Amino acid sequence: MILSGTKVGWIGAGKMGLPMSRCLIKNGAEIHVADPDESQIKKLVNEGAQAGSTNISVASASDIVISMIPNDAVLRDVVFGESGIFSVMKSNSVYVDMSTVSPEVSEEVSNEANNRGICYLRAPVSGSTLLAESGNLTIICSGNKEAYTKCLPLFEVMGAKQYYVGSEQQALYLKLAINLLAGSTIVALAESLAFGRKGGLDWGLMLDVMNESVIASPLLKYTLPPLKERNFQPAFAANQMNKDLGLICDAAANIGAPSDISQIVRDIYMATIASGHGSENLTAVVKEIENQAELGEP
């Protein structure tokens, strides 16, 4: 198998981390995994991974350490906490964070990595859990170019497309820019659907026509079928999109970029969460807009 002999420490076996690490196992990588949820670790152990007791133990047993974690606070803990991996990682070793985190905290990690001679890659992903399961994510990477080349075989089994976009925080800015477009698109879709329903259009017919119209896109192609069935099971939750919109607004303020649309879109997601739909798919903004339009179920 193409990754045979590659020792990877995997930190974070959640909704995305679990299927992504499975792709590595299926292709022969030796995975040492750590996660706060022991049941998630057991799932990977049953498929051939080895359980790590701490993040440090995972990092000590690996050539490359990869994390897929929820936010800035966890990233800081993974790197700088009591079980911080940089305390045991050797010079010229590689750390890859594949999470969506702020460029500001990533810069803190980068500075410490440079001080220790560790090669740090930012490699956030674009795609849903379904794409993670099939190894068809898009992986956007920035950082040390030689480390990227070393990790490319790993990225190729987790993603259908891989892009190297720069030596610093460029990957995170691009991932956040993509998520701003995704979040804005879903909010515009929700408002369009409420507008159509107010005008007397049939829900299912409206979605069918939209899916075959000039606005059709990969995002809408996999968004509209479950939406037609009023299925809001989370592939990417409203809470997660709201978190990313917060990162976008903060980063925009830090670099002096406009964020008027970002703020408006974030307000709608925050209202959706306040209405109790935060754990549902990001398309749950449809329910919030319908409520504002005084519309019931179609």
Plain-language structure description:
This protein is α/β, with parallel strands linked by helices. Helix content is 53%, strand content 14%. It has helices spanning 17-26, 38-45, 55-60, 72-80, 103-116, 129-133, 145-158, 170-198, 203-211, 218-228, 238-255, 260-277, 285-292, and strands at 7-11, 30-34, 50-51, 64-67, 94-97, 119-122, 125-126, 137-143, 159-166. Strands 1, 2, 3, 4, 5, 6, 7, 8 and 9 form a 9-stranded mixed β-sheet that branches. The termini are far apart. The mean pLDDT is 96.
Write a concise keyword list for the protein shown above.
alpha/beta
* Distinct helical segment count: 13
State the share of residues found in helices, binned by percent. 40-55%
Report the order of strands and helices: EHEHEHEHEHEEHEHEHHHHHH
How much β-strand is present in the residues? 5-15%
Poorly predicted regions? none
- Tell how many strands the DSSP assignment holds: 9
The major sheet is characterized as:
9 strands, mixed
Alpha-carbon distance between the termini?
A: 50 Å
Mean pLDDT: 96
Computed Rg: 20 Å
Structural class: alpha/beta
Shape: globular
Quaternary state reads single chain
